[in-house]
Amino acid sequence: MITGEGRHRVARLFVCGVLVLSLAATVAALAPEVVTAVNAIPMHLSGRFRDARGFSQAAEGHFLVFDRRAHTVFGIDEQMSAVYPIVEIGAEPGRILDPSAFSAAVDGSFVVADAPLGQARVQVFSPVGQLRQRFLLPGRARSRVAIDGFAVDGIAGLHYTGTAVLVSQPDWGGLITEYSVAGEPLRTFGELRATGHEDDREVHLALNSGLVVTAPGGGYFFVFQTGRPAFRKYDAEGRLLFERQVQGHEIDALVASLPDRWPRGADEQPMIAPTVRAAAVDRQGQLWISLSVPFTYVFDADGDKVRVVQFRGAGVISPTSLVFATNDRLLATPDLVIFDPDVVSDLPVDTTRLPPVVLTPDRPR
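Now predict its structure.
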């Protein structure tokens, strides 16, 4: 016969067992998954691009490729049989020079941020490359983030909704500045995070640079691109809903190696390597964050991590941009590959791509 005390012990053991099983199930669910490409731009086309940093598909079916080093936006037909320039190099309106960011809306219209003669500029184009609007941003274009050893002049984080342009512009005192397509500043929101470098303005602003993406049904995610990886979610009015730290054993070495100083000359800008390479939101409102190590973390609409993904094309891929197409396929650069996020391969995770990470302060080139 079980006494009252015995019943309590059995109940406690039962609860502990449930918790252990629940924890084990959670750990198992977050084991890295390998997602392999289901399609890709053929090599005889993709080989033309020097540095593909943007890849999207217009509603009409054709693809857009932003080639940063070629200062060009290309089109590729839906059958992937031909490539053609849509917007070409040049400082005059309707062309691009020293581009830093690209974003396309669902209808295929797109924006490019560039910096001709060091002046930050945003241009809005139709799906076929006709200039619709352009505007200049105040101040000179500055380099604070070094991506793959390449110093980015001007805007690094930009998101185009089709009706507005959202820019990571911490110089204005907030994380996100929203512009109309005509260039009218509509609002700035998102308090800058504490960095411990408030006495060094350029470092403080660099550590508050990030990527902006919109959430289905309204609201925004802001993903800090440099320093300790984290993200925030804001509602449609710009009010903070929550902040989450991005954590996982895949990035432990990366975070442990983050420098805490960026020595430079009096007239030099700090060049800070990113810990986050890309971000996108799917139809379910899940946030996908591509890290500087070849893993992507997926967070649900409440900010809880639900998946760890390693992308595989011809080899392991660490995406530099991510975009969800209207058919829920995930388009990624630099390899111009297409994934079905729901199709998980039985291939083993490649852990050889995780050597000790050392992020040293880069010096301007």
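The mean pLDDT is 87.
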